[in-house]
Specification:
611 residues; mainly alpha; 69% helix; DNA-binding; PPR_rpt; TPR-like_helical_dom_sf; Pentacotripeptide-repeat region of PRORP domain-containing protein; repeat
Length: 611
DNA sequence: CTAGGGTTAG
């Protein structure tokens, strides 16, 4: 949940990790110079009619997919050529529609080329054309070019409209420049440069949600209303989705109620977001209720909704139910897509049933659906779980070779797999490869590195890496601290662990129950029972309730340090809370009972366990 | 003719 946040995926600094902000090789500076007929170079890909037998299923499917895409591009370009020869020339609107068609096919660089050719032919363009091309630049991750076009708009005396600015804001946000976007937006409002509507507000609301500031997004929702811009179903749905992802589903349901009070009809997206949130909390009864509500409002679940449900069941191990849901959606006229099938494959992979996942892959292929980068990630994860890291690496290479960009998740999974199989050297090399490829590292990568180093007895390295990351502006989350605390205690570095723990609050983080448990376990191991006990008091003070694990750790700690009275007290406490001894604690207790020591506390314990 | 919300990893 935290991982999806753009700003926690931030910045190990460039200096430390030599992490390129963006590959400078992929500029579009050259695109305006590209002559249109040279676009036929796109056809130099292997002839799909000559697919060699040794290609994998993944590879064959990719070739087919690309063939379809390129044919359409070719059509569009032929139309453009025809338009250029027409006399009189078609209107700006016709040309802009052609650009829109290219955008729809995601051929952004081709669209930019067409635009530059239009300019060189002195075809009149308008603000709409400019906005379209700005959108293309943003998709090509060249926000700098987008702003250069904005300058051109001013220079030619056009006036940017709300669409132009919305596109630019989205471009900034997609490049993790949310603060810049927010600043631009504020200035636009301050100087009345734009009449804000629900869409431009939603762009900022969405940015706030994606950077973990759902409450600010909520405030902006109230603000737009105050400014006389009525929030619509999209504004509400954006926030409802974010709340659901923050596990605040009840707040999200509250907003749903507010919508109906105001006569704003929720749609399938609104409901899907809520269902997703409820799935994460396993609130199946509420899900059933929402599905009934949808039915009552004549909103039928879409492909997306079914995918969410398939995913939830599959992750919960209920692959049979997930299979049934897919049958059901087909019966109801919704065609499962690559996401739906991938969710099912994920379910099988998580159960270690890779053969069954492969069967699903074949089913999907037979329906003409190609695996995507996420499908690969799922199999990579499956193989890593089975410690078949080499196969996973092979898959990664295969997808790269075939033009699919592996996600950071795929890289992370393999990096973790290498550490877990104690292939330290290779992990190091692989990490370097990630940096070279310009993979956008995130907080998970950081956790894997630190955990991997600690696990392999290199706590010192982990700590110095952590400090360097921090000094470069990396903001750790509580899981990162937990990894380090665990590692420090494992290496007997009690003072450093204590120090890190005390700094957690200063970093603006809240210790989790795992943090407290790790501290208690660490102190127990070192025989510092009173410090362990202080942590227990501290966690209660901070409204972090001890779990079964907390008691087990404390009880084991007491007995290992021959503090039988204390151990018995904690057993009473644990029982009073309805918790049970785990296998490890139980075995210690039974071992103790075997001893003939006539310790009074042990006798009492004996009575408790053998009435 | 142009812009907005819902699916993935430790």
């Amino acid at each position: 949940m935290i991982m999806r946040r753009a700003f926690t995926t931030c910045f190990f600094s460039n200096t430390l990790l030599r992490f390129p902000i963006h590959a400078t090789t992929n500029t579009i500076t050259t695109i305006p110079l590209l002559r249109l007929h040279s676009l036929s170079q796109y056809h130099t890909c292997p002839n799909p009619n000559h697919i060699p037998n040794h290609l994998s299923e993944f590879e064959q499917l990719l070739l087919e997919k690309s063939r379809v895409g390129f044919d359409k591009l070719d059509d569009a370009l032929r139309v453009f050529d025809k338009m250029l020869r027409k006399k009189p020339l078609p209107s700006v609107i016709d040309f802009t529609q052609l650009l829109a068609a290219l955008v729809k096919m995601k051929h952004y660089s081709a669209a930019v080329s067409v635009f530059s050719k239009m300019c060189s032919f002195n075809i009149a363009v308008d603000i709409v054309t400019y906005s379209t091309v700005i959108n293309c630049c943003c998709h090509l991750k060249r926000v700098d070019y987008a702003f250069a076009l904005l300058a051109a708009i001013f220079k030619r005396g056009f006036v940017p409209n709300v669409v132009t600015y919305t596109t630019l804001l989205r471009g900034l946000i997609s490049q993790d420049k949310f603060l810049e976007a927010e600043l631009l937006f504020k200035n636009l409002l301050k100087h009345n440069q734009v009449e804000p509507n629900a869409v431009i507000f939603n762009t900022i609301i969405n940015g706030q949600c994606k950077t973990g500031n759902t409450s600010q997004a909520m405030m902006l929702l109230r603000y737009m209303e105050k400014k006389g811009c009525m929030p619509n179903v999209v504004n509400y749905s954006t926030i409802i989705d974010s709340l659901s992802k923050d596990r605040l589903v009840d707040d999200a349901l509250g907003l749903l109620g507010e919508m109906s009070d105001r006569g704003i009809q929720p749609n399938v997206v609104t409901y899907s977001s809520l269902i997703q949130g409820l799935c994460n909390l396993n609130r199946w009864d509420d899900i059933t209720q929402l599905l009934k509500d949808m039915n009552r409002h004549k909103i039928s679940p879409g492909k997306h909704t079914y995918s969410i449900l398939v995913d939830a069941h599959a992750r919960d191990g209920k692959v049979r139910d997930a299979e049934y849901l897919i049958e059901l959606m087909i019966r109801r006229g919704q065609n499962p897509d690559v996401v739906t099938y991938s969710a099912l494959m994920d379910g099988y992979c998580l159960r270690g049933e890779l053969d069954k996942a492969s069967v699903v892959l074949r089913t999907m292929r037979n329906k003409g659906i190609s695996p995507d980068a996420h499908t690969y990630s799922i199999f990579i994860n499956g193989f890593c779980k089975k410690t078949k890291v080499d196969t996973a690496i092979h898959l990664l290479e295969e997808m790269t070779l075939k033009g699919l960009t592996p996600t950071v998740e795929a890289y992370n999974t393999i990096l973790d797999g290498l550490f877990r199989t104690l292939r330290l050297d290779e992990a190091h090399k692989f990490y370097k490869k990630m940096l070279n490829k310009g993979v956008k590292l995130n907080v998970v990568t950081c956790g894997i590195l630190l955990h991997g180093l600690c696990w392999n007895g290199l706590v010192g390295e982990a700590m110095s890496m952590f400090h360097k990351m921090e000094s470069c502006g990396f903001v750790p989350n509580i899981q990162i601290c937990n990894i380090l605390i665990h590692g420090l205690f494992k290496d007997g570095k009690v003072d450093e662990a204590r120090n890190l723990f005390q700094n957690i609050l200063l970093k603006g983080l809240r210790p989790s129950v795992i943090t407290y448990n790790s501290m208690i376990q660490g102190f127990c191991q070192e025989g510092l029972l009173d410090e362990a006990y202080k942590i227990l008091l501290e966690m209660e003070e901070h409204n972090c309730l001890p779990t079964e694990a907390t008691y087990n750790i404390l009880i084991r700690g007491c007995f290992k340090n021959k503090m039988y009275d204390g151990g018995c007290l904690f057993i009473d406490d644990m029982v009073a809370h309805g918790f049970k001894a785990d296998a490890s604690t139980a075995s210690i207790v039974f071992d103790l009972l075997q001893l003939k020591e006539q310790d009074p506390a042990l006798l009492a314990l004996q009575k408790k366990f053998m009435p």
